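Tutorial, part two.
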Amino acid sequence: MTTPTQPTDPADMIHDEHDIKPSGLLRFITAGSVDDGKSTLIGRLLYDTGNVAADQLASIEATSQKRGLAEIDWSLLTDGLMAEREQGITIDVAYRYFSTAKRKFIIGDAPGHEQYTRNMVTAASSADLAILLVDARKGVITQTRRHAYLAHLLGISELVLAVNKMDLVDWQASVYQAIVDEFNGFISQLGRHHVQAFPLSALTGANLASRATDISWYDGPSLLEHLEYIPARRDTDLAPVRLPVQRVVRVMLGNAASGANDEEFRGYQGTLASGHLHLGDEVAVLPSGQQARVTGISIGERALQQANEDQAIVVALDRDIDVSRGDMLVAPAQPAQVVRTLTADICWLSEQPMQARGKYLIKHTTRTVNALFDELLYRVDVNTLAQQAAPETAAMNDILRVRLKLQQPLLIDAYTDNRTTGSFIVIDPVTLNTVAAGVIVE
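Running the prediction step on this input gives:
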């Protein structure tokens, strides 16, 4: 019998000085088909790491007993919506926060049903890592491939293949290895990804928070050990300054040293999408290209010397120039692209098919513009990865590469360079429903 592929032990993983170090916070998602055990895995992980309160534990124990279950239903810790509990499935993204002695985590439990692919896209858009669960009895199925492709599309290069319910196949090494080989064969076609595979049982906790010692053919780390070690891929911190302007306000700006409110300024409010912004920095305002110097940065009444990625701030400039909602403050030497056409990969999320050459709204950062699907270049078959050229329309969950014409300019980066300025949503102008999510190729 072939020895199953072993995940690398964290103690043996050596990285060079150029590797990104763990940030202290890891954002990850769990995804898979219905009943693969995503919510159970999260619930058990929370319990095994001491992140479940006594009253919560008592509640889910009581509910499990009422349902006639011999074991605690750990999925109840995440399936909080009444509709979910009635159906026994996850239909929304459940976010949970927990920590160990080594780092903090944010988990997104993405739905398994195909019609809730849009929720998986939402959860994956900010994740550093994706855990793809596979039922050992079923193996790799279409939803596994779909979620793996979406993770690839959304720039998640760190993948965990969690082969769950191994206890239901008597922990057969041959079953585990066949699933790992099939998945690796699929993901290798998408380019460079780092995949770690784990045999486990979310229900019993085997190989989840602690190493499984009773599996003769497995001597690798537990899933939690891997999560505690793996670096968070948050590269926007090193990217150029991008501050989409949400609104223009009049603010009292205090002195950074004394904190005193001493002068009123016209300020530009927004969340810093990437980079670091300092007092005295030169910035350019797009799309006009006018330049000015930063004379004030504040959060509420608190003045700052420096703003970092993800902070919601108000910025004052040394010149009174024309800036409005939807404009963007950028590093002059590294500006965003100002475009009226763009090529993007989209996932169609609506039950209503795309209207060929129909007019839609594109919401990108704080700017919303009218747009036309000028050309549908190809549709991706998630099972074979074949490109079906020139489709006439898009149905729910289709993944396509498209070319868009914009009535007004957008201020963009490629998604591979910046997740925030490289992504957008598509809105139906009549219903105002979100019908697609996209990532910018160029």
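The radius of gyration is 24 Å. In part three we will examine how such features are distributed along the chain.
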